[in-house]
Amino acid sequence: MPAANRYDAVLIGGGVMSATLATMLAELEPDWSVLVLEKLDTVGAESSDMWNNAGTGHSALCELNYTPARPDGTIDIAKAVAINEQFQASRQFWAHQVEKGVLASPGDFINAVPHMSFVRGGDVEFLRARYEALSQHPLFAEMEWADDHARIAEWAPLLEAGRAPGEKVAATRSNHGTDVDFGALTKQLFAGAATEGVELLTGHTVKDLRRRGSGWTVVGESSEGSFAVATPFVFVGSGGGALHLLQRSGIPEGEGFGGFPVSGQWLRCTNPEVIERHSAKVYGQAEVGAPPMSVPHLDTRYSHGQKALMFGPYAGFSPKFLKQGSFLDLPLSVRPHNLLPMLAVARDNVSLMTYLGKQIVQSMDQRLEALRVFYPDAKAQDWELLTAGQRVQVIKKGPRGGVLQFGTELVHAADGSVAALLGASPGASTAVDVMLRLLAQCFPAHQDLWRDRLKAMVPSYGTKLSDDHELLTTTMARTADVLKLAA
């Protein structure tokens, strides 16, 4: 049960978002009382868990959906640049926490893994245009190109194992890529925050948020009984569960928001010899109608120092908003204020519904067929099927009644007393940038006081690395050294 009946801040959800915010608040305001409430028995076990997300360290080095082609064939790199800048902020923050001793072992949560994009046939020209556009930008200047089989085989042997030598293929590679175990990161951040006075309670489920003057009463229950704590600030960072609590808050800013849940599955390699032959995250083109989190990739992972290999994800549908949620999550989220946006999204996303329907009924042979686009020699006995995490895509009001948004949405009350994070990809990789925005939007009066401390955490805070070549060079070198990512 909570040790007090009032806190300066209450954070709901024990994932990487709350872990990041708790760590920031402990450094910015060491005298504040901060309470974190998680309904499961451990932290980082839902969307932050390694086996529930891609763990790519999304930096747009390999994700083709962040660089759409314009009608004239040129490539729009604006989103890729923004996401890379956001991930660099995360690297800076993590490096700072390593130097402080909050993060004790960077190798347990982040490892250097090259990021590759791989395409075939008619997609080669798109990848070439993407490479030419990105490689001119300072954040992507070291990206490499290959369109010959021998070179690609050097980078990722599995891609060429059994492939027809005459097939038209191409790939790009960046050695600045990483693999991130956000579950391990979350646990380390909370362990460090606890030494700074942050109170973390697992097995505590928040049921309601009630207005209390200018603040809130957070109501919930645990195995020990019900509890209620008062606070002037609440952050709802409970993944798919955030929508329900945002609705319970009753703030007008939350009206019109709905959620569309998408589930997923992975193939995980069980053959150590195959695992050892591949050391890269290789992303391809998504199928027509596929949501961004379903972009196929052959993915090197690290779990507790052990190398792993996964392929997927294969999308599916479940009405649950969390992997350990309820089948009633989706129907109970429907309100009069979000019914029209949700119906409009259903009307305008027939291709997505069709795609999800096909994914749900896939056989193992069909899943292996998708894998063999990347690894032609893949054998069924070397792979097992795992269930990945749930993602709840944001539905909100739009010009045609509603729009399905593939990204994250930070929703906060006008007075900054409550904020909720909705959505998914790139999610965890940009947690630091999201929390910096939250601090600016919810605590505007503190910004002058916090500015120097925030710049100590994130040296590029308030600027863009791509606008300052010297800062970019020194920052990349420092974070690589501190996080032990240097070649």
From TrEMBL:
InterPro entries: FAD/NAD-bd_sf (IPR036188), MQO (IPR006231). Its EC number is 1.1.5.4. Belongs to the MQO family. GO terms for molecular function: (S)-2-hydroxyglutarate dehydrogenase activity; L-malate dehydrogenase (quinone) activity. Transmembrane segments: none annotated. It comes from the Bacteria. Keywords: FAD, Flavoprotein, Oxidoreductase, Tricarboxylic acid cycle. It catalyses: (S)-malate + a quinone = a quinol + oxaloacetate. Pathway: Carbohydrate metabolism; tricarboxylic acid cycle; oxaloacetate from (S)-malate (quinone route): step 1/1. Pfam families: Mqo. This is Probable malate:quinone oxidoreductase. It comes from Kineococcus rhizosphaerae. The gene is mqo. GO terms for biological process: tricarboxylic acid cycle. Its cofactor is FAD.
